[in-house]
């Protein structure tokens, strides 16, 4: 492709609202243009990379009998009424009304559509299992779109759905998908880890997220060295090993604690350690309030609370709600004398006694509060985030933390949608059964960004060979020089036979051309400059910066060797 005909609006400066490296480079390399918050156009370089990623995704899906379809983005609300999800999503679900006043959703995902599509066709166990997938734009009205393509409001997803007569059949496809995802991420050049994840509202029991390792990642992974244990920190189970340090129960004592609002302030006032304090938090679960007791040095894990109660509707109570229930401000809450709401405690609260807790009176706290004598709790549970260094649930050692970008997720869905939408098949006994489903997503546009996060230097992107927009970048330094232009034209014609070639034939200063080439990140570069008259060109590797002076008659072999060795 001749760069004089291309559309690559590179930038010298970066808009200051681009915080992540990939967002900055996507803009500087002229790969995307924002038209609204979280909404982007993909320009030629980005589109070519997306095509390459999608080709790899298609290959791996088809290798495990996935069949490609394309479903509409416009989803009739009736189907979301059938699944019961129309009322359960708020502003994130983009809704619209057509000219007849009928309501539609712009598809954030396609469980309802695919289930309604197959329920009339797959009526016998003999027709199962089936795996269908699509690659298509999704719409989710994120509250805070950020980091360019990492969190957009319109993005490209590969979403696959599988339908089974038995759990074993679902398990087999789940494993196939798990392996196919590993192949895809390896092939596109991503360093990633599959992590045990929480299935959340989507339902189902079993799910893994695929996390691309990157500091900008919004997810935290808890993993152990020397094992394949890795869990999203939302899900990472805490192994409770009792470490009881009780002292003789002392008398309950109320103390005036003016201005004390945080566990640290209370610890400082009492000359205690933070882990000797117990925090009391009020959480709204569905439509009722619940109190949680957590040690001062731990944090409440809202995802664990959600899965404990089996609901997505879990919010910290507001200050007004707290005052309404407890007649005290947050910061002075405690379990003593509380009988209107249930109290749950994290396992580790039972390790200590004579607790320092709020007195449910602003600016007053109790010391020596004791479970049993002064308050009751409904149940202990694993309600906190694991700390770095604590033992992993599978005993494989102390966990370490890493940031990750969720680039994919595989779910065992079960029959949540097939029951709600009456997608049944006749089993071998001729009995109607709901189909057992799996669903599997890859963030295709997010994957592109994650690759840039992992493959760049200060001058720009360095594309892995498998997804690079072009294999070779030919630069004619000064097209006004006949010898240079003629040789560059010739090399462009010759190499285009076996490689994808971007040919910078523009009437631009050399510096501009080299800056742009560094930004765009094509792995191999042939520079046709002053020595063209002597039949010598420069070959440069974008990744290592190495360069070689090569006589034209050795160029094909040199390029072939360097291309083979590219990662
Ligand atoms: O999408 C999934 C599960 C899997 C992921 C892989 C491909 C198939 N779906 C979960 N999820 C996430 N955000 C959503 C946002 C909105 Cl606004 C919505 F209405 C529904 C969903 C929703 O269901
Ligand atoms: Mg997540
Ligand atoms: Mg997810």
From TrEMBL:
It catalyses: tRNA(Pro) + L-proline + ATP = L-prolyl-tRNA(Pro) + AMP + diphosphate. Belongs to the class-II aminoacyl-tRNA synthetase family. ProS type 1 subfamily. GO terms for cellular component: cytosol. GO terms for biological process: prolyl-tRNA aminoacylation. GO terms for molecular function: aminoacyl-tRNA deacylase activity; ATP binding; catalytic activity, acting on a protein; proline-tRNA ligase activity; transferase activity. Residues 48-464 form the Aminoacyl-transfer RNA synthetases class-II family profile domain. InterPro entries: aa-tRNA-synt_IIb, aa-tRNA-synth_II, aa-tRNA-synth_II/BPL/LPL, Anticodon-bd, Anticodon-bd_dom_sf, Pro-tRNA-ligase_IIa, Pro-tRNA-synth_IIa_bac-type, Pro-tRNA-Synthase_IIa_type1. Its EC number is 6.1.1.15. Transmembrane segments: none annotated. It is found in: Cytoplasm. Catalyzes the attachment of proline to tRNA(Pro) in a two-step reaction: proline is first activated by ATP to form Pro-AMP and then transferred to the acceptor end of tRNA(Pro). As ProRS can inadvertently accommodate and process non-cognate amino acids such as alanine and cysteine, to avoid such errors it has two additional distinct editing activities against alanine. One activity is designated as 'pretransfer' editing and involves the tRNA(Pro)-independent hydrolysis of activated Ala-AMP. Consists of three domains: the N-terminal catalytic domain, the editing domain and the C-terminal anticodon-binding domain. Keywords: Aminoacyl-tRNA synthetase, ATP-binding, Cytoplasm, Ligase, Nucleotide-binding, Protein biosynthesis. PROSITE patterns: AA_TRNA_LIGASE_II. Homodimer. This is Proline--tRNA ligase.
């Amino acid at each position: 492709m001749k760069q004089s005909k291309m559309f690559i609006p590179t930038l010298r400066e970066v808009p200051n609202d681009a915080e992540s490296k990939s967002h900055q480079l996507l803009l500087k390399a002229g790969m995307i243009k924002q038209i609204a918050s979280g909404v982007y156009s993909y320009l030629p370089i980005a589109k070519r990379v997306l095509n390459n990623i999608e080709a790899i995704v298609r290959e791996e899906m088809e290798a495990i009998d996935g069949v490609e379809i394309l479903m509409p983005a416009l989803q009739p609300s009736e189907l979301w009424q059938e699944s019961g999800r129309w009322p359960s999503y708020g502003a994130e679900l983009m809704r619209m009304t057509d000219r007849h006043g009928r309501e539609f959703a712009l598809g954030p995902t396609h469980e309802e559509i695919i289930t309604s599509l197959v329920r009339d066709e797959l009526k016998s166990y003999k027709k199962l299992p089936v795996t269908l997938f699509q690659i298509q734009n999704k719409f989710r009205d994120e509250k805070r779109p950020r980091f360019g393509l990492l969190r957009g409001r319109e993005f490209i997803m590969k979403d696959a759905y599988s339908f089974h007569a038995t759990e074993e059949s679902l398990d087999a496809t789940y494993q196939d998908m798990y392996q196919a995802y590993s192949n895809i991420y390896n092939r596109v050049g991503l360093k990633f880890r599959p992590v045990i994840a929480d299935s959340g509202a989507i339902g189902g029991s079993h799910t893994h997220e695929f996390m691309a390792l990157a500091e900008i990642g919004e997810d935290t992974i808890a993993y152990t060295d020397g094992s394949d244990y890795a869990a999203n920190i939302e899900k990472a189970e805490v192994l409770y090993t009792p470490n009881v340090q009780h002292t003789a129960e002392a008398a309950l004592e109320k103390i005036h604690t003016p201005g004390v609002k945080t566990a640290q302030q209370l610890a400082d006032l009492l000359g205690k350690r933070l882990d000797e304090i117990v925090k009391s938090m009020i959480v709204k679960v569905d439509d009722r309030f619940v109190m949680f007791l957590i040690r001062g040095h731990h944090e409440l894990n809202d995802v664990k609370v959600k899965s404990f109660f089996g609901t997505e509707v879990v919010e910290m109570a507001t200050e007004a709600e707290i005052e309404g229930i407890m007649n005290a401000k947050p910061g002075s809450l405690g379990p003593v004398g509380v009988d209107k709401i249930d109290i749950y405690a994290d396992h580790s609260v039972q390790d200590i006694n004579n607790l320092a807790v709020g007195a449910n009176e602003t600016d007053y706290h109790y010391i020596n509060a004791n479970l049993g004598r002064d308050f009751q709790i409904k149940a202990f549970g694993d309600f906190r985030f694991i700390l770095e260094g604590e033992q992993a649930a599978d005993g494989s050692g102390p966990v370490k933390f890493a940031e990750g970008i969720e680039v994919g997720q595989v779910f065992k869905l079960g029959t949540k949608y097939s029951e709600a939408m009456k997608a049944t098949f006749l089993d071998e006994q001729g009995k109607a059964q709901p189909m057992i489903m799996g669903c599997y997503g890859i963030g295709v546009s997010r994957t592109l960004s994650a690759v840039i996060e992992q493959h760049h230097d200060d001058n720009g992107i360095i594309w892995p060979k498998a997804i690079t927009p072009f294999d070779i970048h030919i630069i004619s330094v000064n097209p006004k020089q006949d010898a240079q232009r003629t040789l560059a034209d010739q090399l462009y014609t010759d190499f285009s036979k076996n490689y994808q070639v971007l040919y910078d034939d523009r009437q631009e200063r050399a510096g501009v051309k080299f800056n742009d080439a560094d930004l765009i990140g094509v792995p191999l570069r042939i520079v046709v400059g002053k020595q063209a008259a002597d039949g010598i060109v420069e070959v440069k590797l974008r990744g290592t910066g190495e360069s070689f002076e090569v006589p034209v008659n050795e160029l094909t072999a040199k390029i072939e060797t360097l291309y083979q060795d590219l990662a």
